[in-house]
């Protein structure tokens, strides 16, 4: 929707056009057509945000015009102009795709209020569509990123398996890889509770490398959101024991007290003789930006739904 709304008035009566313009002056940029054919031609040349359409016109009347424009402009708000008390016309106007109607002779306050409402709804719908597109783009980018990180983790695990007979050298190369990664990487000794995290893990939460210590409780358990701590720990342990891998989303507390949404993936790389996990490795990806966009989208949808309910209540009165 343009920053200045564009309104098309379609009526074969020049006096009616003049009256409407006087009632709506200041609400936007105005275009005028005196027939349905002229209106369709103008719409093909200029984008508009709302149409005020007279029903009774020679040749192509308002109903025919509405059916024609709905094929190419399904989301364009159309407000019909009807004779006062002509309920059959009002019903037909809604059936052919009209969004609302105003009665002649015009009440300036009512006309202005209804046009203002539909312009506001149109702007909210445009913002919702923009937000949905932005979320979709962000999700695609995130999926690519997660897939890339998953491939990196699989390659790293395979490298550790092949280098099992030279464990010291393998561990050294592994630590170098974790130090260079952009996402958080962790290596957890489940039996002792000790864990290694790369510098990116700490920086993601606002801590300096080494500030979180070398135990899983200090840099994971204690940082989990209180509402999620017990369930996240229980689910992680259960999945590592039973499946050998997990993928979870949860919130971790940053140094400044705020929380970030994290996508955590982990897998068991060493087990005891009876199958109990001894060691697991994994990654952390910051999901906070995506979560914020999802929240904005929900708020935009709620705003649009609230406006729609307000319109319904207005029309019911």
Description:
With about 325 residues, the protein is α/β, with parallel strands linked by helices. Helix content is about 50%, strand content about 20%. It has 10 helices and 10 strands. It has a 5-stranded parallel sheet, sandwiched between helices. Helix 3 links the parallel strand 3 (about 50-55) and strand 4 (about 80-85). The chain starts with 5 loop residues before the first strand and ends with a helix.
In DSSP terms, counting alpha (H) and pi (I) runs of 4 or more, how many helices? 10
Q: Strand portion, in percent?
A: 15-25%
Identify the strand order in the major beta sheet.
Answer: 2-1-3-4-5
Kindly, what is the distance between the CA atoms of the first and last residues, rounded to a whole number of angstroms? Answer: 29 Å
Uncertain regions: pLDDT < 50 for 5+ in a row?
none
How would the blueprint of this fold be written?
Blueprint lengths: L5 E5 L3 H11 L4 E5 L2 H10 L4 E5 L7 H11 L5 E6 L3 H9 L4 E5 L3 H55 L4 H14 L3 E6 L5 E3 L1 H6 L11 H4 L9 H14 L2 E9 L5 E13 L5 E10 L1 H29 L1
Quick recap:
This protein has helices spanning 14-24, 36-45, 62-72, 87-95, 108-162, 167-180, 199-204, 216-219, 229-242, 288-316, and strands spanning 6-10, 29-33, 50-54, 78-83, 100-104, 184-189, 195-197, 245-253, 259-271, 277-286. It is α/β, with parallel strands linked by helices.
Output the keywords.
single chain, 317 residues, alpha/beta, five-stranded parallel beta sheet, five-stranded antiparallel beta sheet, 10 helices, 51% helix
């Amino acid at each position: 929707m343009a920053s200045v709304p564009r309104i098309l008035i379609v009526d074969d009566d020049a006096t009616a056009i003049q009256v409407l313009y006087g009632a709506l002056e200041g609400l936007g940029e105005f275009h005028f057509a005196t027939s349905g054919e002229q209106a369709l031609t103008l719409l093909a040349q200029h984008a508009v945000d709302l149409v005020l359409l007279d029903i009774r016109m020679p040749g192509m009347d308002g109903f025919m015009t509405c059916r024609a424009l709905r094929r190419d402009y399904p989301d364009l708000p159309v407000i019909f102009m009807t004779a006062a008390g002509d309920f059959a016309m009002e019903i037909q106007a809604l059936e052919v795709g009209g969004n609302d109607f105003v009665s002649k002779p015009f009440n300036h306050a009512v006309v202005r209020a209804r046009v203002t409402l539909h312009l506001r709804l149109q702007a909210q719908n445009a913002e919702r569509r923009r937000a949905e597109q932005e979320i979709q783009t962000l999700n695609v980018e995130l999926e690519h990123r997660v897939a890339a990180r998953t491939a990196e983790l699989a390659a790293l695990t395979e490298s550790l398996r092949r280098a099992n007979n030279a464990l010291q050298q393998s561990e050294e190369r592994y630590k170098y890889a974790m130090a260079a990664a952009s996402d958080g990487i962790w290596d957890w000794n489940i039996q002792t509770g000790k864990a290694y995290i790369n510098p990116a893990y700490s920086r993601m939460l606002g801590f300096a490398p080494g500030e979180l210590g070398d135990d899983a409780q200090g840099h994971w358990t204690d940082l989990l959101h209180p509402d999620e701590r017990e369930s996240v720990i229980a689910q992680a342990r259960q999945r590592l024991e039973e499946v050998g891998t997990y993928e979870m989303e949860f919130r971790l507390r940053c140094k400044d007290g705020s929380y970030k949404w994290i996508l955590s993936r982990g897998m068991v790389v060493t087990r005891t003789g009876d199958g109990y996990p001894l060691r697991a490795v994994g990654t952390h990806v910051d999901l906070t930006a995506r979560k914020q966009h999802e929240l904005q989208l929900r708020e935009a949808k709620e705003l649009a739904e609230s406006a729609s309910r307000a319109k319904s209540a207005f029309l019911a009165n």
